[in-house]
Design goal:
- It is built from 18 helices and 19 strands.
- It has helices at residues 3-21, 37-44, 49-55, 92-95, 97-104, 153-158, 160-166, 168-189, 231-239, 277-296, 318-324, 334-337, 340-356, 370-381, 435-447, 449-454, 461-468, 481-489; strands at residues 58-71, 74-81, 84-91, 111-120, 126-137, 194-195, 201-202, 214-217, 222-226, 244-252, 264-273, 300-303, 306-309, 314-317, 390-396, 405-406, 409-420, 423-430, 474-480.
- The strands form four sheets. Strands 6, 10, 11, 14, 15, 16, 17, 18 and 19 form a nine-stranded mixed beta sheet that branches. Strands 1-2-3-5-4 form a five-stranded mixed beta barrel.
Length: 532
């Protein structure tokens, strides 16, 4: 610790001793305030000095000291509460000698209560003329230097409490995140959806292809997994007759960290019986447009300097998206990309273009299936270019083991992904409800050693048993809440919209190895949202 900071801490500790010697409790149990700062500003900001003098409104208000100016026998301070600031004025002859000594011993960051009446200063600022002062919490650690705020990203994420105190924008980001979640709930509940809770510790991970976190229950001597997705449990509920269900859930994936990936993340996942992929497309457009308008007051938002208009949706097949956003003047057609040989030629051509710009190539080796290659080419060519809200459909069935195949083309799944601002926001499909075919799909996964490890190396027999009782035709979808919050707050890292993102220990000794590449994308091509 720097000597200057240590000196400040020692000064504050001495002041604490002096405050206690005066007979004040520096950490009392409660404070019965009559108004919040926001309520005072809302009610009295339009009052003139003469109106305040006539009404003489009295208030008891509390907050954290963020400015402090002492002038002989009087002083000013600003209190901060819920992102709003209010000035207080303390005079020796108004509060008495003992309480004014307390005021003189205060520091930036201290939490206090002030009781008095409202007036306007000579400069016209709304101010509390204090009659009584109460210390509510003495801050022993100094706040960051007020002129510079808190700019160090590492400290901001590690000490979010400090970040919230000094950075107004951070508070606004998390207030908006709360509004987003509330708007999503209101939309679904207005349409008959029921909110449910499913297990976070599961005996068998499922609903996505992702490496799980493992734990152990001592009393039952049982190995468990933190859930990678709630999908299979939510669909059990559809079997049970809950025709419209949703969960806003925490998921955990033991994989890479990037600007768009955190090992612990939040998803909205919802299922509607007697619906299919087309129904979910219409619902998605309606839901996100309404949520954006409700939260932002407009259907147009700005993300990374680009306008994203939620009243202008587009729909593209996976191959159409590749063809549309091909980075060269000569472009492939969607029909060409359906032919194996042509697909690999275009992948090789993309790699030449990428090499000239020092970008990562796309693996197009002969061992790679056409479906996997098509998805990889889409992610390299088109995904980040989808600024306008877009539904991308017709994903290969081989990377969609929980989705129904199209009747007219069994190689393609009835599945779509949601993009806006270059971010993948969600994933949806017509749910596979044939237990025989579902077992076959699971068995195909287990033949791939890497997939087998990811999905726990065994089949979820209870889920197949549930399907055996008959699940109605169902549409399901997952929306990444963190990425939606990124988009609607113009935040360029997922860590900016998660209050306590996972970080390496401060000592620098990591319990696990993070991805070497900060933009390492997680696996999970079959995940419900991919928006982790």
């Amino acid at each position: 610790m720097a000597s200057e900071a240590l000196d400040q801490i020692q000064q504050r500790e001495r002041k604490l001793s002096q405050i206690e010697a005066l007979g004040f409790d520096p950490y009392p149990h409660r404070f019965g305030f009559t108004h919040t700062i926001e309520q005072i500003l809302a009610r009295y900001s339009s009052h003139s000095g003469q109106q305040l003098e006539a009404e003489h409104p009295t208030v008891k208000v509390c907050g954290r000291i963020v400015t402090y100016r002492l002038h002989g026998k009087a002083g000013f301070a600003h209190l901060l509460g819920q992102g709003k600031k209010l000035q207080i004025y303390v005079r020796l002859d108004a509060v008495g000698e003992k309480m004014f000594q307390l005021f003189q011993l205060l520091d930036l960051g201290d939490v206090i209560g002030a009781e008095g009446y409202l007036f306007r200063t000579r400069t016209g600022e709304l101010t509390v003329h204090v009659d009584r002062l109460t210390l509510l919490a003495k801050a022993l650690l100094p706040l960051p230097e007020k002129w510079h705020g808190l700019a160090d990203v590492e400290i901001r994420h590690r000490q979010r409490y400090l970040d919230l105190i000094v950075n107004q924008r951070v508070r606004e980001v998390f207030f908006r995140r709360s509004q987003i979640i509330r708007a999503l709930r209101e939309f679904l509940e207005a349409r008959g959806y029921v909110e449910v809770e499913t297990p976070m510790m599961q005996p068998q991970p499922g609903g996505a292809v992702a490496r799980p976190f493992r734990t152990h229950h001592q009393a039952l001597d049982l190995n468990l997994y933190l859930r990678i997705a709630p999908e299979l449990y939510l669909k059990r509920l559809v079997v049970g007759g809950l025709d419209r269900v949703y969960e806003i859930n925490r998921n955990f994936r033991n994989e890479g960290i990037s600007t768009q990936h955190n090992p612990e993340f939040t998803m909205l996942e919802f299922y509607q019986a007697y619906a299919d992929c087309e129904d979910m497309m219409a619902l998605t457009e309606e839901m996100l447009t309404q949520v954006v308008k409700q939260v932002c007051g407009t259907t147009t938002v700005t993300y990374e300097g680009k306008e994203v208009c939620f009243d202008k949706w587009q729909r593209l097949s996976l191959r159409e998206a590749i063809a549309c956003y091909w980075p060269e003047e000569t472009k492939p057609t969607a029909a060409e990309l359906a032919e194996a040989a042509a697909l690999r030629r275009w992948a090789a051509r993309y790699n030449q273009w990428a090499a000239a710009r020092q970008l990562n190539p796309v693996d197009h080796s002969a061992s790679l299936s056409e479906g996997v290659l098509t998805v990889a080419l889409f992610e390299a060519v088109a995904a980040a270019q989808l600024i306008s809200p877009t539904l991308v459909y017709d994903f290969p069935a081989e990377v969609s083991p929980l989705a129904k195949r199209r009747d007219d083309d069994p190689a393609v799944a009835e599945r779509f992904e949601v993009f806006a601002g270059g971010l993948e926001l969600g994933n949806a499909f017509s749910e596979l409800n044939n237990p025989v075919e579902q077992r076959q799909r699971f068995e195909e996964q287990l033949r791939d050693r890497a997939l087998a490890e990811a999905v726990g190396e065994r089949i979820d027999e209870d889920y197949l048993r549930a399907l055996g009782y008959g699940m109605p035709p169902t549409g399901g979808e997952g929306i990444g809440v963190d990425r939606l919050a990124m988009l609607l707050t113009d935040s360029h890292s997922i860590r900016e919209v998660i209050l306590f993102p996972l970080l390496r220990p401060e000592s620098g000794k990591s319990a696990g190895k993070e991805a070497a590449d900060p933009d390492h994308a997680q696996g999970g091509t079959t995940s419900r949202s991919g928006a982790s």
